[in-house]
Every structure is written in structure tokens, then in C-alpha cells.
Amino acid sequence: MMNGKAVSRAIRGLILTDAALHATLLSSIYDIEVLQPNNLAMFDFAKSDELTDLVQLIDNPTEYLSDDDTRIKRVLVRLSEFREKNTSKTAKLLFMFMDMIEILRLIYMY
């Protein structure tokens, strides 16, 4: 059985892995380059209205609480289309991992 500090480290590692998967997923969807250690250039967020909406959503989440907001719907539709299009065993496993981490966040963070 793991103690509190070990559990905390394990959860932190899982959440970091999930963040890296999300960065890779968004870079694939929106055709942006993932930052590498030697490449610290800023992204051109003006390439896509959806991408600017996503950045605004992350910066100000309380402004976008309405489910009927079209900007949120565009981003969610794009994510679900990408998820449906990628049906390999590895992709399914990674999406399942991301879903499980979301459940962990709901339980652990609140």
C-alpha cells in the first residue's frame, strides 16, 4: 500500500503525462508545433479562430460557462471529430487514459 507522499507523486506524474498527451493532441488538431527544448518560439494563435477561442477559454474559464456558446461548441466538435477519426488500438488506449485521468481529477481535486 502506498503512503500519502507516494500517492501524491504518482498522481502528479499521471497528470503531467496527461498534460503532455493533451499538448500533443491539440498540436495535431490545430497543426501547431509542439515546443521543443531548443525551440522556444511563440505560437501564432491568430492562425485559427477556434484556437484563439480555446486560448481565451483557458485564460478566462468563468466567461464561457454557458453550454450554448458557439465558440466552445466549435472546439468540442473538432476534438470529437479527431477522436472519432483516430481509431487505432494505441489511440483508443491513450483516449481511455485521458478519460481516466479526468475522473481522477474530479475525485482527487474536489
What does it look like?
By secondary structure, the protein is an all-alpha fold. The chain has one domain (4-108). It is built from 4 helices and no strands. The chain has helices at 4-30, 49-59, 70-85, 89-108. Helix 1 packs across helix 4 and helix 2 packs across helix 3. The mean pLDDT is 77.
Attribute tags:
mainly alpha; globular; 4 helices; 110 residues
The coarse overall form would be globular
Helix content: 55-70%
* Residue share in β-strands: under 5%
Radius of gyration: 16 Å
Q: If you average the pLDDT, what whole number results?
A: 77
User: What is the total tally of β strands?
Assistant: 0
Short description:
With 110 residues, this protein is an all-alpha fold.
Secondary structure elements and pairings:
Elements: H1 4-30, H2 49-59, H3 70-85, H4 89-108
Helix pairs in contact: 1-4, 2-3
